Amino acid sequence: MGNAFAAQADDPSALHYNPAGMTQLQGLQFMAGGLISGGSTDFTSPAGVTARGDRDGTVAWPPPVHAYVTANLKGLRLTALGDLSLGIGLTVPFGSLTRWPSDGPFRTATTFSALPLLDIKPTLAYKVSENFSLGLGADIYTFSGLAGEGHVERQSVWPGGLGIPAGSRVELYGKDTAAGFNASLLYTALRNSDGKPVANIGIVYRSQATLHLNGALLADGANVSDASATLVLPQIMTGAIAVWPVRTSEREWKVEMDIDYVGWKSVRNLNVTLENGTTIMQPQNWRSTYAMMVGTEYKWLALESLPHWVVALRAGYTNQQNQMPDFSYDPGIPSADLHVVGGGVGLLCKAQGSFLGLMRCGDFGVGWLTPNSVGVDLSFQAGFYEDRTVSGNRNPTVDGIYRTTLYNGSVSIRMVY
To answer: What is the per-residue pLDDT across 179-204, written as a single tens digit (0 to 9) for each?
Structure first.
């Protein structure tokens, strides 16, 4: 749905989109999945030299993953704490992976970059009243060897200096753990006669966090020096509204619009300090941006052809501004005004439903881990970046035209207990 979900937030991914929405979930729920990301960037220099960058192959590997577990304590008959819901999630929020030819026109700027950052999200939500819920959580940003190399890294061909021979293949890498927080609310402005929301408002705030990266500078695989840098992750503010023009016992239709403000202006530099005190200057001066997301979902709740199944069709559009000025443009991070279109399908089989006519969906699991329903969500997105002409970059070899198209396909499995 173009990521327009902060005002709906009615499955375990609410942990990411709007944690206050966890109060809408019953019992114990689990969702996990992965993202297959592909596509390429084509570069043309002012002199007509061309190059192509990709995701370190046809698709990025290992794929970014997500996992969420939520528990409604009241639904689990733990009523001492009132309408409290708990959850924990894992996402890859700012991941990027780009490879350029090692003999390409801007090899002294970058040949490979990766940011396999993980976000661990312990979270709680409380239903203050029937129509108003609050969420509060931590964002623990860290790296793990289970995701890529377990650190942020950049590779390039050295232009010369610092005692490193020109033409050497150099790598800068580092890692750290840092914490931020998120706060959210979900307000139901209108309900239908069945008590279901037909107009929701969501507001989410995600704080800035600072990673003090510690690692090393390598040249042709040999350690040249310990190295450190500071990476500031931006604050994000989201406002969202969702309405259901149709919401009956047989079908539902939702339309939603979300607006994100991303404080990229906090990324002022990525200067690298070596152990002898030498600083490799990398000014950035990024600019803060807005993103608009519009999404819709049409859901069938009582199909005669599929008894005890819920089927949902989804589609969405995202418009996102670029954050990098020409002076500090980085070919390792696609940055241009972006249009994303996508769609997907969700299938949820209740316990009485039949899976391929072979077994009941309620027969999945063992003992108390037998689910009340099992679901799968599939989606596909295409990201079309507007052509970006870069001029006046601090590394003149970067100047030129960039044309980027990226594709993402995802799958998630959901269990409701």
So the answer is: 999 999 999 999 999 999 999 999 99
DSSP 90-106: EE--S--EEE--TTSTT
Q: Are 361 and 307 in contact (CB under 8 A)?
A: no
List the CATH number of the domain containing 138.
Answer: 2.40.160.60
Reduced to 3 states (helix: H, G, I; strand: E, B; else coil), residue 29 is strand
Count of domains forming the chain: 1
CA trace torsion 221, 222, 225, 227 (10° rounding): 20
Please tell me the pTM assigned to this model.
0.93
Residue 7 lies in a domain: no
Cis check: omega of the bond before 283, within 30 degrees of 0:
no
Instruction: Give 43-85 as a DSSP string.
Output: EE-TTS-EEEEEEEEEE-SSPPEEEEEEEETTTTT--TT-SEE
Q: Is position 34 within any domain?
A: yes
Q: How far is CA 255 from its chain centroid?
A: 21
pLDDT score for 74: 87
